[in-house]
Specification:
Elements: E1 2-5, H1 10-20, E2 25-28, H2 44-56, E3 62-72, H3 93-105, E4 114-125, E5 128-141, E6 157-159, H4 171-177, H5 179-194
Parallel strand pairs: 1-2, 1-3
Antiparallel strand pairs: 3-4, 4-5, 5-6
Helix pairs in contact: 1-5
The protein binds inosine 5'-triphosphate (ITT).
């Protein structure tokens, strides 16, 4: 079975591929000619829906989108849906992390550091949204980056039950408890019941 992930973020694709093993043939938008989908929504579900539905109008493949991000409670849920552009419109992981560290440095030292990653996945075919699932992982945020695995905010996030950041932990450990894996498990269940 083959699925098209409606993403240009190769890190997401790689994690999804590792989690799915060889049960699915996974490809993404990199190298394909699809026009960019503007993420005009204000929620993960809205943006995940925009991406999956729009791309699925342009292919016969089963499409799955991933809209995800980090919510820091002391920053009222920022960066949230703006996670990929927190450091500016052409933000990258470096700039986004710098922006977050700057914001964290302005917080009182005793303020709680709780945070979570969220992921919403939408399944679509031929312009129709068929299903959607979400996953999250609770944890806390630290002031200075640690580790170099993973991507995005991984160097600043420690999942509950661990003392290392997602960027210090083995990729397999991240994949066993991440927001993405928790959404993906439900996608796989749905696919096995439906497809
Ligand atoms: P696509 O829209 O093409 O899928 P994107 O990276 O722009 O790629 P999002 O709009 O969903 O995707 O933004 C997700 C951002 O949230 C991502 O760029 C990271 O900054 C952050 N993020 C999501 N999952 C993460 C993870 O597992 N580890 C670290 N950061 C993550």
């Amino acid at each position: 079975k083959s699925i098209l992930i409606a993403t240009r973020n190769a890190h997401k694709t790689e994690e999804i591929r590792e989690m799915l093993g060889d049960q699915f043939q996974v490809s993404d938008l990199n190298g394909l000619e699809f026009p960019p989908v503007e993420e005009t929504g204000t929620t993960f579900l809205e943006n995940a829906t925009l991406k999956a539905v729009e791309i699925s109008k342009q292919t016969d493949e089963l499409v799955i989108s991933d809209d995800s991000g980090l919510e820091v409670d002391a920053l009222d849920g920022e960066p949230g849906v703006y996670s990929s552009r927190y450091g500016g419109e052409d933000g990258n992981d470096q700039l986004n992390n710098a922006k977050l560290m700057e914001k964290l440095s302005l917080l009182r030292p005793d303020v709680k550091r709780s945070a979570r990653f969220r992921c919403v996945m939408v399944i679509a075919r031929n312009g129709q949204r068929l299903a959607h699932f979400s996953g999250s992982v609770e944890g806390r945020i630290i002031d200075e980056k640690r580790g170099d695995h993973g991507f995005g905010y991984d160097p600043l996030f420690i999942p509950d039950g661990h003392e290392k950041t997602f960027a210090e932990l083995d990729g397999q450990i991240k994949n066993s408890l991440s927001h993405r894996s928790r959404a993906l498990t439900q996608v796989v269940d749905w696919l096995s019941q439906t497809a």
